[in-house]
Amino acid sequence: MANQSDLVLYHAAPSRSSAVVTLLKELDAPYELRLVDLKAGEQFKPEFLAINAMGKVPVVVHKGAVITEQVAIFSYLADLFPAAGLAPGLNDSDRGPYLRWLAFYGSSFEPAVIDHHMGREPGLRAMSPYGDFDMMLGTLLGQLAKGRYILGERFSAADVLWGSALNWMVAWKLVPENPIFADYTARHLARPATIWAHEQDQAWRPKKEA
Ligand SMILES: N[C@@H](CCC(=O)N[C@@H](CS)C(=O)NCC(=O)O)C(=O)O
């Protein structure tokens, strides 16, 4: 079990790391918060680059081990705090689908969404990690149509990642509006942890110069 002194989150408010703030709240996990001001370029300071040479958040440091990439962080933290029950265990039949939909986020969804938004062609179907945008999106929608959560009726850490991402990506028009996404993100936005994290981000976001 982690305690406050051995778990650190580097977070830029608001950004992709906001989903990790939400997850840590869902997990009721103690941690030390270190804010990174991306607009001020703090991600390029040598001290931060020494932790993540990519100059990106989120970053979690646990007992000195650095974990980057949302998917790895979600998987790691949900396992680290099992009492919350947000990660199906090794012998649970939902474990495989849970890892599948976490990985789908990083391996297929984000690359497809960013390529699509930038007007970049995915290239040869067989070479593209996500096939094509419509197939990727149809696959995701087909899964979300099966129940309230990405694993059906079971809420998991994967829903914190997907709910958070779909919320900002639909708002930014990176992903088309769809009633399935609307219902799914509405459930995410109504959760106390999500509401808390949004309020915290307002307090934590860098203050604009007067
Ligand atoms: N693949 C990374 C992406 C992280 C990422 O792009 N984070 C953005 C914030 S939303 C960032 O740190 N941008 C600052 C920059 O690139 O200068 C992940 O999944 O964690």
Q: Topology of this structure?
A:
Blueprint: E1 7-11, H1 18-26, E2 32-35, H2 46-49, E3 59-62, E4 65-68, H3 70-80, H4 95-118, H5 133-144, H6 157-171, H7 179-189, H8 192-204
Helix pairs in contact: 1-6, 1-8, 3-4, 6-7
The protein binds glutathione.
Can you offer a commentary on this structure?
A 4-stranded mixed β-sheet has the order 2-1-3-4, with helices on one face. The mean pLDDT is 96. The protein contains 8 helices and 4 strands, in the order E-H-E-H-E-E-H-H-H-H-H-H. Helix 1 (18-26) packs antiparallel against helix 6 (157-171) and helix 6 (157-171) packs across helix 7 (179-189). A hairpin with a 2-residue loop joins strand 3 and strand 4. It has helices spanning 18-26, 46-49, 70-80, 95-118, 133-144, 157-171, 179-189, 192-204, and strands spanning 7-11, 32-35, 59-62, 65-68. The protein has 2 domains: 4-86 and 195-204, Glutaredoxin (3-Layer(aba) Sandwich), CATH 3.40.30.10; 95-191, Glutathione S-transferase Yfyf (Class Pi), Chain A, domain 2. The chain is of the alpha+beta class and 210 residues long. Glutathione (GSH) binds at residues 12, 15-16, 38, 43, 55-58, 69-70, 106.
Summarize, please.
With 210 residues, this protein is of the alpha+beta class. 47% of the residues lie in helices and 8% in strands. It has a 4-stranded mixed beta sheet with strand order 2-1-3-4, covered by helices on one side.
Give the beta-strand count: 4
Could you give the order of the helices and strands? EHEHEEHHHHHH
Structural class: alpha+beta
**So, CATH architecture of the largest domain?**
Up-down Bundle
Largest beta sheet: what is the strand line-up? 2-1-3-4
Structure ligands:
glutathione
Radius of gyration: 17 Å
Strand content: 5-15%
Distance between the termini: 43 Å
* Low-pLDDT regions: none
Mean pLDDT: 96
CATH class of the largest domain: Mainly Alpha
Largest sheet: 4 strands, mixed
Helical segment tally?
8
* CATH structural fold name of the largest domain: Glutathione S-transferase Yfyf (Class Pi), Chain A, domain 2
The geometry reads as globular
User: Roughly how much helix do the residues carry, as a percent range?
Assistant: 40-55%
Subunit organisation of the chains = single chain
